[in-house]
């Protein structure tokens, strides 16, 4: 899919972004997927975000198992709509998903471009007669540095609001610990460094900001990332890798003391029969 500025490639496996190329800047903004660091580029997180306690949850008296971030990123999506500036990919429930996730659903990912802007919409439909409980989120990895002559630590993330925000630490088991750590103190800026992610992702709850920009004072190139309606945000990079993930989430990993009941999980979304849930993030590349 392309217009006069952007060229976007999407892989049917996981409906995962494979390339974001700006013809005007000549820059590939998406991480390369180098398996020496992290082989993925922009996986979707559904029907959970993060890790479950013991990789299990309880629902309606039964125990179910789901690996980290759920199964959608490993499924082959069907391309159900395609035109010059819009692609719609879809998966639905099947016997193998019911063993892990006993709900009826239709999950669509819609990619659309306009000028130098890409929008990504997650659309969940409850096709069953009972409430659907789920989480959903994005995990796009953007290349850093973006310009020759610049290094990783020349870049920073800038929020559109000044924040007083803590990060929520992640345990060795991938769960959210109970004691947050102060990180942003009346500032709109987070300087990037490889050491920043030495203890896994930075996890935020309830930021005032709904837009974060990747910028550098040594180049005019960067991107802006809008995520209205996503109550959680993750910032992450693999150890030593030249990328940063900006992860908007409607959902979060289990807390270390969670009782594993799905309907009591922090950030879980409850969707009534035949209802549709939709959230969109938008990135602009310059």
Write a structural description.
By secondary structure, this protein is mainly β. It has a single domain (6-285), classed as Beta-galactosidase, Chain A, domain 5, CATH 2.70.98. It has one helix and 22 strands. The chain is globular, with a radius of gyration of 19 Å. The model has no long low-confidence stretch (mean pLDDT 98).
What is the third-level CATH name, the topology? Beta-galactosidase, Chain A, domain 5
Task: Name the average pLDDT.
Answer: 98
What's the CATH class label?
Mainly Beta
> In percent, how much strand structure appears in the residues?
over 45%
Shape: globular
* SS elements, strand count: 22
Structural class estimated from helices and strands: mainly beta
Distance between the termini: 18 Å
Largest sheet, spatial ordering of strands: 7-8-9-10-22-18-17-14-15
- Major sheet size, sense and barrel closure: 9 strands, antiparallel
Oligomer: single chain
Gyration radius (Cα, Å) is 19 Å
